[in-house]
Amino acid sequence: MGHEHPAVTPETERRTRPWSAVEERAAHARRGIVSFADRGGRMTAGQQRAWDRSWGRLGADLADLAPDGRRADLLDGDGRLNPAAWFGRTADLRLEIGSGMGETTAALAEAEPGTDHVAIEVYPPGLGQLLMRTEAAGLENLRLLRGDAVVVLRDRIAPDSLDGLRVYYPDPWTKRRHHKRRLVQPATVALMASRLRPGATLHLATDVAEYAEWMLEVTDGEPLLENPHGGFAPRPAWRPRTKFETRAEAEGRPSSDLLLVRGTGRAPADAGS
Ligand SMILES: C[S@@+](CC[C@H](N)C(=O)[O-])C[C@H]1O[C@@H](n2cnc3c(N)ncnc32)[C@H](O)[C@@H]1O
């Protein structure tokens, strides 16, 4: 066995370089641990038609969102998303991670016309469905991003910039060996918090009691977040009640909401950058 090219293991890296949260996340990325499952599935004809009509105007692919990419026009000089360039106006910006089929997303964008919304999702049929809803409601304050939201936050969202971040019913990854795939993890919550401006809200909801407790524990441990409710929040009346939530409740799985506020503390310089 030759010794000229020793393998660079995480342990070697740990000993020879500062092991920041960012590198730890990069290691996760190298190991291919992601919070979404490959669901397969094709778009319906209606979703495809909406895609053909409107994706170019209302959607963007994370892969194109790079300083040398096809949608460099949507970025600022630092390579971060420039919402004014995408929406054609300056307004508060709220992001939703994992918009699914877009029922809640479209309803909230319609209810909050003065705010701009970006929905991030990896599942094309879901994005196609949300495009149909966006067209039907004539929404001008909603844009769709296809890609891994963790990478979007890390690479394309400026620190201290968001006015809100929403994660509704994320995949619960209930088996213990899958817990590492949960979207809500200390490192991702630190990243989420760092992208919020002080005073902005991170809103989480789930119908899985054990995941709810996990979320509470993880967010309690994040120094940039404050919990004005000291625990779960009363269900906000403005969060649209979906068929999924109603069914879960009927089956004995009431939903829990967490409303966390970004405090005034400074985000670590390396938080996700
Ligand atoms: C269980 S569904 C919930 C959808 C929707 N929020 C709702 O309440 O009906 C979770 C969604 O999150 C998406 N997702 C999971 N991890 C993601 C990630 N890292 N980036 C973007 N989307 C993600 C999945 O593709 C899936 O559509």
Description:
With 273 residues, the chain is an alpha/beta fold. The chain has a domain at 159-273: Rossmann fold (3-Layer(aba) Sandwich). 36% of the residues lie in helices and 17% in strands. It has helices at 10-16, 21-30, 45-58, 83-87, 103-111, 124-137, 149-156, 186-195, 209-220, 243-250; strands at residues 59-61, 93-97, 116-121, 142-146, 162-168, 196-206, 225-226, 256-262. An 8-stranded mixed sheet has the order 1-4-3-2-5-6-8-7, sandwiched between helices. α5 links the parallel β2 (93-97) and β3 (116-121). α3 (45-58) packs across α6. The longest helix has 14 residues, at 45-58. The two termini are 38 Å apart. The model is unreliable at 1-24 (pLDDT under 50).
Number of strands: 8
User: What is the approximate shape?
Assistant: globular
Mean pLDDT: 90
Q: What is the strand arrangement across the widest sheet?
A: 1-4-3-2-5-6-8-7
In CATH, the topology of one domain is named Rossmann fold
Which sheet architecture does the biggest sheet show?
Answer: 8 strands, mixed
Radius of gyration: 19 Å
What would CATH call the class of one domain?
Answer: Alpha Beta
Give the termini distance in whole angstroms: 38 Å
Number of helices: 10
Q: Helical percent range? A: 25-40%
Classify the secondary structure makeup into a structural class: alpha/beta
